[in-house]
Design goal:
Shape: globular
Helix content: 40-55%
Strand order of the largest sheet: 2-1-3-4-5
Distance between the termini: 22 Å
Number of strands: 5
Length: 145
């Protein structure tokens, strides 16, 4: 008998606008719960600066957490093609795609064109720029995941 993962993994790097990663994942988690989803696994990720993004995610046991989830919600202040390479957001979306785990994105500003979003295999990109809007995005995602 195969167990079906019930929870969602919510991961965010720094979001800006006075919203640290911990506040972003908390707001999305609140919205998911309000929308009827089970308690999510939250992962506040700091940008490594000059460090290795892969090593940072490995230290958080990200792959195991992702594979035990039914979906990944990746949050970023801005989604744009030129800023993706080497970022935490890009690495999370890539790992989800390669691992066969559906990925959704929540961002303060979406500058991805539909082709870029499709290449990353993002199921949906929602824009939210405040704690209230992030919670609303979480409620919407609860309907989809």
């Amino acid at each position: 008998m195969t167990l079906i993962p019930r929870h969602v993994l919510v991961a965010s790097g720094p979001f800006g606008r006075g919203l640290p990663a911990s506040a972003v994942v908390a707001a999305i988690a609140c919205g998911l719960r309000a929308g009827g989803a089970p308690e999510p696994d939250v992962c506040a990720v700091r940008e490594p600066g000059e460090g290795d993004v892969r090593a940072l995610l490995d230290a958080l046991d990200f792959d195991a957490r992702m594979h035990s989830a039914r979906a990944v919600v990746v949050c970023a202040q801005r989604l744009e093609e030129r800023a993706w390479a080497g970022s935490v957001t890009f690495e999370i979306a890539t790992r989800a795609r390669q691992g066969g785990v559906p990925a959704y994105a929540v961002t303060g500003e979406n500058r991805l064109d539909p082709f870029d979003a499709r290449i990353l295999d993002l199921q949906l990109v929602l824009e939210a720029d405040s704690a209230r809007a992030l919670a609303a995005a979480g409620r919407k995602l609860a309907e989809l995941v």
